[in-house]
Amino acid sequence: MKVISKNKNFLVNGEIREKQVRVIGDDGSQLGVINTRDALKIAEEKELDLVVISPTAVPPVCRIMDFGKFVYEQTKKEKENKKNQKVVNIKEIRLSATIEEHDIEIKANNASKFLKAGDKVKVTVRFKGRQNDYAFKGNDILNNFFAKVGGDAVIEKPAKLEGRNMTMVLAPKKA
């Protein structure tokens, strides 16, 4: 009854190299510190596997269990956890330093749609050439943009000048 583990996180049956191990039975009872060969015989009699649960303990802690069933349940739990995760996307909206009021309104409406969908929005104002000297205007543009989006968003990262771009990150308001 030799099971080679596909999951490399656990040592199973013949892979255990320690002379003595602390054994936990299949019903959860403590069997104490036993010679590894004897523990393997007990597991074999019950047609189960001896699995190292805590390899760093002295002596290592092993459990008698159905390893195939254990691996199946672990993968099932991982899939369930993955299914419950919420992926947050970051959408970017680019503005220029010479943008007009109506254009800001249109882009703010698009940002509101993104925020209502649960995405974060990164708003970037790009400065070209001499516009870099008037970078303070970018702050006004971003504040105006936030005022238009207003009720749907919270400023997660305030406006900051990074090279030729001024960026601000908006997150959806929590209900």
UniProtKB/TrEMBL annotation:
Major localization class: cytoplasm
Domain Translation initiation factor 3 N-terminal intervals: 12-81
Keyword Lyase found: no
Subcellular location: Cytoplasm
InterPro entries from the UniProt entry: T_IF-3_C_sf (IPR036788), T_IF-3_N_sf (IPR036787), Translation_initiation_fac3_CS (IPR019813), Translation_initiation_fac_3 (IPR001288), Translation_initiation_fac_3_C (IPR019815), Translation_initiation_fac_3_N (IPR019814)
SUPFAM superfamilies linked to this entry: Translation initiation factor IF3, C-terminal domain, Translation initiation factor IF3, N-terminal domain
Stretches assigned to the Translation initiation factor 3 C-terminal domain: 88-173
Job description of the protein: IF-3 binds to the 30S ribosomal subunit and shifts the equilibrium between 70S ribosomes and their 50S and 30S subunits in favor of the free subunits, thus enhancing the availability of 30S subunits on which protein synthesis initiation begins.
Subunit and interaction comment: Monomer.
Family: Belongs to the IF-3 family.
Name of this chain's protein: Translation initiation factor IF-3
Native source species: Clostridium neuense
